[in-house]
Amino acid sequence: MKRVVAVGIAVMDKVFGIDAIPTEATKVFAKSYLEVGGGPAATGAVTIARLGGAVELWARVGDDPVGRRIVEELKEWGVATSIRHDPKGRSGVSCVAVAKDGERLIFAFADPALDPDPAWLPLDRIAGAGTVLTDLRWPRAAEAALRKARELGVPSVLDADLTTDDIARTLVPLADSVVFSSPALRKLTGEATAEAGLYAAAKLANGMVGVTMGAQGFKWLADGRIEHEPGFAVAAVDTLGAGDVFHGAFALAVAEGRGVRAAARFANAASALKCTRTGGRNGIPTRAEVDLLLAERAPAIA
Predict the structure, then answer these.
(1) Is the Cβ–Cβ distance between 260 and 276 less than 8 Å?
(2) Which end of the chain is more exposed for a tag (fewer CB within 10 A), N or C?
(3) Plot region of 282 (φ>0 → left; ψ -120 to 50 → alpha; else → beta)
C-alpha cells in the first residue's frame, strides 16, 4: 500500500443547502444543514484513505472543541494524524452554501494566531513515502515538506488554490507537480485563458504544471505543448470539495507510479463521482467505484 504525507489545513465545514446562490445581500432559509470536516490537505487525505491508500496528515488546529472534532473525524476516515492543538489560536471554520445546481459559495475563517512554526513536524517520515501533498494554507510547513521531499527524491504535488497572499510564487518552484485551480492560475499569472496561464506558470516551476477545469477536466504542459484529459459528464448536485478530491486522487496516483494522463483520468473520475453526492467529503467515492467508472467510460492507460 502506497503511503502519502499530506500537509496543510484542516477545518470544519458548516454546510447549508439552499435553492440558489443569492445575488444581493438578503436572508436565505436553508433546506438542509451538515457539519463535516474540510480543508484542501485534510480532504485530500480523506480521499486517499477512501481510495485505499495509506495517508497521514500534518496540520494545526486550535485547542478547542472544534479542533478536537476535526481530529476525531479524520481518524474515523482512516487518516493517521500528526496535528498540533495550539492554545493560542482557534480552529478554522468555513460556512458553505450549496445550491440545487451543485455550485457553492464559501466563507472561510483561518485564524492568523495559529503558530506558523513547523519545527515540530516529523519530516524524516517523508523518507519512503510515495508522494507528499501540500496545500498553500500553511506556507512554512509546505515549504519545509516540499524541500525535504526534493532532498529525498520523493515526488511532491502542490495543491495551488486561491489564497489571500502571494505564497504560490515561493512554493511553485519547489514542487514536482503543481496542480492549479482555474481561479488561482489566473490570479498568479494574470492570464485569461488556461493555456496562456500554464505557459506563464511554467516559467516559475521546476516540474509539471496543470490546471483543473471542473467538468472540462484537466490541462497540463508536456514538452512545451498543452495536453488535455477530458472530465466525466455527470449530473452534479454538490461540488464542495471536488478540487480537493482531485488533488488527493492525483497524489495517490503519482505514488502508485502513474503518468500524468493516467493520474488525471483517475482524479477526474474520483472528482466527478464526488459531485454526484451531497455532503462535502461524505460524498468521496471508494476505489471500487472509481475503478468501475473508469472501466465503463474510459480506456486503461499506464
Answers:
(1) no
(2) C
(3) alpha
The CA–CA distances, whole Å, from 135 to 159, 178, 213, 239 equal 5, 10, 18, 19
Query: What is the distance between the alpha carbons of residues 274 and 187, in angstroms, rounded to a whole number?
Result: 26
The amino acid that residue 56 corresponds to is E
Q: What is the pLDDT of residues 175-200, one digit of tens each?
A: 999 999 999 999 999 999 999 999 99
**How far is Cα 60 from Cα 278, in angstroms, rounded to an integer?**
27
- Tell whether domain 3-21+30-118+131-297 is in CATH 3.40.1190.20: yes
Contacts 24+ apart (CB under 8 A), 23-32: 28/97, 30/97, 32/278
Q: Is the dihedral of CA 185, 188, 191, 196 positive or negative?
A: negative
Question: What's phi and psi for 200, nearest 5 deg?
Answer: -70, -40
- Run of H or E residues at 300: none
Q: Facing residues of 162 across strands?
A: none
Q: In degrees rounded to 5, what are phi and psi of residue 45?
A: -65, -45
pLDDT of residue 298: 54
Contacts of 236 (CB under 8 A, 6+ apart): 101, 102, 215, 275, 276
User: What are the grid coordinates assigned to 184, written together?
Assistant: 488561482
**Per-residue pLDDT tens digits for 236-275:** 888 888 999 999 999 999 999 999 999 999 999 999 999 9
What phi and psi, each to the nearest 5 degrees, are found at residue 15?
-105, 125
b/e map of 85-104 (b: 16 or more CB within 10 Å)? ebeebbbbbbebbbbeebeb
- The order of strands in the sheet holding 131-134 is 80-86, 54-62, 3-9, 131-134, 156-160, 177-181, 208-212, 218-222, 225-229
CB atoms within 10 A of CB 156: 28
The x, y and z cell numbers of residue 38, run together, are 474540510
Beta-bridge partners for 150: none
Q: Is 280 left (phi over 0), alpha (psi -120 to 50) or beta?
A: left
